[in-house]
């Protein structure tokens, strides 16, 4: 099980410590570093900055939003950064949910998310393969465009720039059982939002027929500390925000996932409180047990014991959000 560093997305501004953490992760032998985007900073620009200040560590978008760019634009970002970094890019993609897609990106959320995802990946594959002009007669992504307002002048094109790698890895963030199963079929890896090494049965049915080399790369908060309850507070805050605030009351994929993992009553209560504006109460309702299962928090010995549980399952890459170099070093030492 390889280690990766997940930096997430910026808050009010860029984190001045992110570059140093990425460089330390590379020095310690971490396999990858990942950036994210929601409705603020983008994923590709910080990753390019990190690429310019590192030499070996792989560079992952975790995750780039599909609604933010056409699939050809995403493919252009990917092949450009892959060239500039010497073939280090891992392209992580996600569909997000209706609240973000329609509220921030100003686009309709697809009525068939599985089809939209499949078409998006197919366009990217064709761009990177560069075997012929891109032609996809899709329901959501059509190349050339043939909608009712088309001029009829569009023609199939292939990239002017030759991709450095035609087999650049594509990973998908997926939460629902059918979406995960399709990810296994069409992608090179899966980026789970929540992973509990004690509840791997939640995903078992969707992960049948894994191909050799398929990446399973969940993110987990990690922190070496003496007070476990205090260390879990950032995890609970994140869960409260995702489960309560990143989705509509009637359609929240994150809350649905928490429910499938055995915490349905708590998930619905978090949603209820968050949507009432009672955010602190919502965070307080997040069960310590759930936050603890999906993270690595506590003294070194405790983290070592729990890390052993993570190694028993199918996880290939553990992407840790670690707030300090000491935690990165401890995890590297425990993984050798």
TrEMBL record:
InterPro entries xref list: F420-G6PD/mer, F420_OxRdatse_Rv3520c_pred, Luciferase-like_dom, Luciferase-like_sf
Occurrences of domain Luciferase-like (ranges): 18-316
Keyword Cell division recorded: no
Top-level taxon: Bacteria
Keywords, ordered alphabetically: Oxidoreductase
GO molecular function, a single term: oxidoreductase activity
The protein's name: LLM class F420-dependent oxidoreductase
Annotated source species: Kitasatospora albolonga
Lineage: Bacteria, Bacillati, Actinomycetota, Actinomycetes, Kitasatosporales
């Amino acid at each position: 099980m390889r280690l990766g560093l997940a930096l997430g997305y910026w808050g009010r501004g860029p984190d001045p410590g992110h570059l140093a953490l990425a460089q330390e992760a590379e020095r310690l032998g971490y396999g990858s570093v990942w950036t994210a985007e929601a409705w603020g900073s983008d994923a590709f620009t910080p990753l390019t900055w990190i690429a310019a200040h590192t030499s070996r560590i792989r560079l992952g978008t975790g995750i780039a939003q599909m609604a933010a760019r056409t699939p050809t634009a995403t493919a252009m970002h990917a092949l450009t950064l892959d060239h500039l970094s010497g073939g280090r890019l891992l392209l992580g993609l996600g569909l997000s949910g209706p609240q973000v897609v329609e509220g921030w990106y100003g686009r309709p959320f697809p009525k068939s998310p599985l089809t939209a995802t499949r078409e998006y990946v197919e366009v990217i594959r064709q761009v990177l393969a560069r075997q012929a002009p891109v032609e996809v007669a899709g329901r959501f992504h059509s190349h050339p465009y043939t909608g009712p307002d088309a001029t009829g002048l569009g023609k199939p094109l292939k990239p002017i720039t030759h991709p450095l790698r035609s087999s650049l890895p594509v990973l998908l963030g997926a939460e629902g059982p059918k979406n995960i199963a399709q990810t296994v079929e069409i992608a090179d890896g899966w980026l789970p939002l929540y992973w509990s090494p004690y509840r791997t049965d939640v995903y078992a049915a969707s992960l049948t027929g894994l191909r050799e080399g398929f990446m399973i790369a969940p993110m987990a908060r990690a922190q070496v500390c003496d007070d476990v309850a205090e260390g879990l507070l950032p995890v609970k805050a994140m869960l409260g925000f995702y489960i309560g605030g990143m989705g509509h009351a009637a359609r929240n994929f994150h809350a649905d996932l928490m429910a499938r993992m055995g915490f349905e009553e708590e998930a619905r209560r978090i949603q209820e409180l968050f949507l009432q504006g009672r955010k602190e109460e919502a965070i307080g309702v997040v069960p310590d047990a759930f936050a603890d299962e999906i993270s690595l928090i506590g003294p070194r010995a405790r983290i070592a014991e729990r890390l052993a549980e993570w190694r028993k399952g199918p996880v290939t890459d553990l992407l840790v959000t670690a707030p300090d170099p000491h935690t990165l070093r401890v995890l590297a030492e425990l993984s050798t």
